[in-house]
Amino acid sequence: MDPEKLTPEVRDWLVANGWSPGRDIGERADELIRVRVQDSQRQGNPLTPVPAAVHIIHTYGLLHLTHPTAQGISWVMNPAIGYEGDAEAIQELKSGLKTELFPIGYESSEHGIILTDEKERFFHLHHTGGYYLGENASDAFSRFLIGTPDPDAEDFFV
Questions:
Q1: CA 65 → CA 13, 27, 77, 105, 150, distances in Å?
Q2: Structural domain boundaries in the chain
Q3: How do residues 20-62 score in pLDDT, each as one tens digit?
């Protein structure tokens, strides 16, 4: 994701939450990805880290992106956090979308998993189903800040 494509509002919000242009958490990102892959293998539903997810984790990994007006709501950019059986749920969503998905974090209020696909689209796996968050990081962050309703991921099934 090109930082030049960030809106000023998104850029300012990211900076306020610890991000900076050129940020890369390096080996720590690789370790988080490795932990997530190993856990999915343990669950019997291996997940493949797509290049877009690897880039996002390197760039935004370990940030706690707090919503500026909605108390207690954040996106925690840690792909290693999940729950038992989540790899199967991710595989089901992946099957409908016909694309690889990989976790990049979770939302703090109900611990739904934030995922990205091969095209860098963002999705939310919530206990009520899958939802579309945006066409890329900039769009997803902007929609999060504005509070745009999230369409069902099924609207994007192939």
A1: 8, 21, 8, 10, 18
A2: 3-156
A3: 999 999 999 999 999 999 999 999 999 999 999 999 999 999 9
Per this entry, what is the length of the chain? 158
**How many angstroms separate the CA atoms of 6 and 112, rounded?**
24
Residue 72, phi-psi category: left (phi > 0), alpha (psi -120 to 50), beta (remainder): left
> What would the pLDDT profile of 110-144 be if each residue is shown by its tens digit?
999 999 999 999 999 999 999 999 999 999 999 99
Amino acid at 58: H
- Largest distance between two CA atoms of the chain: 42
Going through the chain in order, the beta strands assigned E by DSSP cover 64-66, 74-76, 101-107, 113-117, 122-126, 129-134
